[in-house]
Amino acid sequence: MTDWKHGRRILLGITGGIAAYKIPALVRLITKSGSECEIIMTRSAKNFAAPMTLETLSGRRVWDDDSFDGRIPHIKLTHWAEAFVIAPCTANTLAKIAHGLSDNLLTSAVLAATCPVLIFPAMNGAMYDSPATRSNINTLKSRGVKVIEPSEGALACGDSGRGRMPEPHEIMHGIFRALCVQDMAGKNVLVTAGPTHEYIDPVRYISNPSTGKMGAAMARSAWYRGADVRVIAGPVDVDGYGMEVVHVKSARDMLEAVRENLSWADYVIKAAAVGDYRVKDFSPVKMKREGTDTLTLKLVQNPDIAAEAGRLKRPGQILVGFAAETDNVTDNARTKIIRKNLDCILANDVAAENSGFASDMNTITLIPREGREETFSGLKEDIAFGIWSRLIAG
Ligand SMILES: Cc1cc2nc3c(=O)[nH]c(=O)nc-3n(C[C@H](O)[C@H](O)[C@H](O)COP(=O)(O)O)c2cc1C
Question: Residues 123, 227: one domain?
Fold first, then answer.
């Protein structure tokens, strides 16, 4: 585990919104990630989530307006916290915070907080869009408070609109971004991830076992460090919270999407496992097995997306390729740097145990065009963090 993700001290404020039913799952995620969680509940919040559940999951008492242990709780808790997360945040508490009220333990703690404060408003769409709430949000943002806008969708009240609190794992992403060093703020990062599908007929395709995990880890790590991130993903699920995700199927679709986004990017990470070949003659109807004991497919080469990005590369842009190899891993990778005009290649031994496709672990050798090679082993998310530190250092 990287230290930025481990053993963090998170103060969680819960207010009286219906989305509080999701908060026990968030507390579980926080403690599972190796961080500690202290909880403050408003009086109204207790109607929506049971304090005993939260105490069990956090392993600590829950603080409310009646709690006192001989020390002033709002000062003690805010001195302890590295991040203060208010989720869900009602329109009522949002208004109080915006106006500096401190009429309960939670709002008093916000006033006393010197750590980053993250507010996750959740309410009916009309309440959210009301001029009063908009003005309160703008006030808080202008003071540097991080207000994470809710998403649109079906709301618990039966309406639909903007007002849904993000899911617990998405709130975790927000917390980690707030806690992480922001040394990529202002940078644009384009990542390709996952396999491609090269269709033979409407129901069959040629592909590879890539799950997109390494690309997703590179994307998420850059986002935690403050970058704006776009992911061009083959047909796999990508947790794209906070990022833009463009889904494509074939290598030619991916090339198109890369061309469209290339000039925007300061860093381009080519982590997708792009199919080198496609069938020469795609069958527009399902091919029949009857009468064909054997089947010969004629394949033609797909475009080389990394080489094309290398050809179009603008000055100052950093282009990083991946080489998934099974033999002579680093030698094979090294030849691609010059041929494709890359700045760096990440050689990935996909045949090694606990490494490569689908695994949460990996072993990658970073080979720069010039300079020291470095091998990273471990969880993909930790490797991604280490690779970014090297890339940023230049
Ligand atoms: C069933 C029910 C659901 C509610 N859901 C929300 C909600 O999602 N968001 C919100 O801002 N207020 C909601 N309210 C209103 C708040 O509970 C109310 O404003 C309360 O005073 C908030 O107190 P607090 O901000 O101190 O927690 C709801 C009220 C009820 C009765």
Answer: no
User: What are residue 191's DSSP bridge partners?
Assistant: 231, 269
Q: Whose CA is nearest to atom 6 of ligand 1?
A: 17
Q: Residue 248: which domain range?
A: 188-393
173 and 199 housed in the same domain: no
- Using CA positions, which residue lies closest to atom 1 of ligand 1? 18
Mutate which of 92, 94, 96, 130 for ligand 1? The one with the most ligand atoms within 8 Å of its CB, which is 92
pLDDT tens digits, 296-343: 999 999 999 999 999 999 999 999 999 877 777 777 778 889 999 999
1: pLDDT confidence band, cut at 50, 70 and 90? very low
Q: What is the arrangement of strands in the sheet containing 374-379, beginning at the earlier edge strand?
A: 244-247, 228-233, 188-193, 267-270, 318-325, 344-349, 361-368, 374-379
- Residue with the smallest CA separation from ligand 1 atom 10 is 90
- Please tell me whether residues 201 and 338 are part of one structural domain: yes
Gap from CA of 2 to ligand 1 centroid (Å): 38
Say whether both 315 and 272 belong to one domain. Answer: yes
pLDDT at 208 over 90: yes
Helix, strand and coil content of the chain, in percent to the nearest 5, comes to 35, 25, 40
| pLDDT for 334 | 84
Asked whether residue 212 carries a pLDDT value surpassing 50, the answer given is yes
pTM: 0.91
Q: Which long-range contacts (CB under 8 A, 24 or more apart) does 54-57 make?
A: 54/14, 54/23, 54/24, 54/27, 57/24, 57/27, 57/28, 57/31
Q: Are residues 269 and 192 in the same domain?
A: yes
Q: What is the DSSP letter of 20?
A: G
One domain, residues 140 and 204: no
Residue with token string 């009309």 = 126
CATH number of the domain to which 151 belongs: 3.40.50.1950
Position 168 pLDDT exceeds 60: yes
Interval 18-64: pLDDT, tens: 999 999 999 999 999 999 999 999 999 999 999 999 999 999 999 99
